[in-house]
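Chapter summary example.
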Amino acid sequence: MAAVAQEAGGVAMMEASDEEEEEEVEDLRNSDVVTKYKAASDVANKTLQGLVGYAKAGMRVLDICIFGDQLITQQCGSMFKSKTIEKGVAFPTSVSVNDCVCHNSPLASETDVYVLKEGDVVKLDLGVHIDGYIAVTAHTFVIRADPSTPITGKAADVCKAAYLAAEAAVKLITPGAGNGPITEAIKKVADDFGVTPVQGVLMHQMKRFVIDGNNVVIGREEIEQKVDPFEFEDAQVYTVDVVMSTGEGKPIERDARTTVFKRAVEQKYMLKMKASRYVFSEVDKKFPTLPFTIRALDDERQARMGVVECLKHNLLHAYPVLFEKSGDLVAHFKFTVLLLPTGTVKITGLPVNVAEFATDKEPCAEIKEILSRSSKKKKRKKKNKKAGEAAAAPAGEAPKAMETD
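The structure predicted for these 405 residues follows.
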């Protein structure tokens, strides 16, 4: 009996070990996971590129949002065709213009949808996942009849500042480094360009099916808004998310309808209304962990009614449409970065030609130095074995094995 018990215990230990191993390979140490992140990033980047070409003067913001989500769905449909692999939109396409900060993804039923015009500062924001591995991105550009026309004035200052701050953040995300220097760098760039980081913007660690993990970098630290310090580690994935404003950077809600939500997985409540139960059931089935737009639900009218009770009982998190003061301009850049053995790799985001921003403002020497850093890890040179052993071994002790990359 004792032998049987020991054997059973051994089997249990092996099963537990297998489970731990299975959980462990969901990060970047598994090449298949890296492949899925990069596949998601390819879809995100191609969608972003397509939207920049599609978003011309005279286009409705609603049509651009619909087109973005369709592009994501179509591209994902041709990849990883196993029925067990979920894929698609990880954050619905949002198009926020000028003083609108974020999360603007209107519904088909709305009649007063904004139409783009020449000179608009347009922010595109979207996310893609393959098997729960998420790639998010955001890009800012200015509507111009002639794309070679330089961007000037406040638009040039705020766009260049947001882009350079985001690029500096990428350089500062390395294993062993802390989150604090990123917040400091964003402030330095903002000061150099005479703009302001927007309050409440957080950069999260991402994991499988988790778009907003616990490790957080804050874009603007204040007495009432701080985050816990932490250090970046190998095999982690992060969002770099920088939003700059020509105003005070204190966004507010206006009268725009909130259409983007996320299921609060830890909350439970027995809903009373039939419409609420129907909507919540659909959300549980289609979007159990990631953000979604009401537009993606089967019955928009019923969804608008049903989310009210869900919000009242904290079953959903809302992503409200936020605005700066009228006349201010906001720029937004967002990247996904992987901490791989070879170094930090930015996998989302479109190329930006900073020369198109006609501004006399420049980042300080400290930021320029950060931007000049390589994101790749340096390989250590292997020393001559005998010389290394002789130098490393104290008298009377055997030489220790050298560490190599």
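To summarize the output: The chain has two domains: 24-258+320-371, 259-319.
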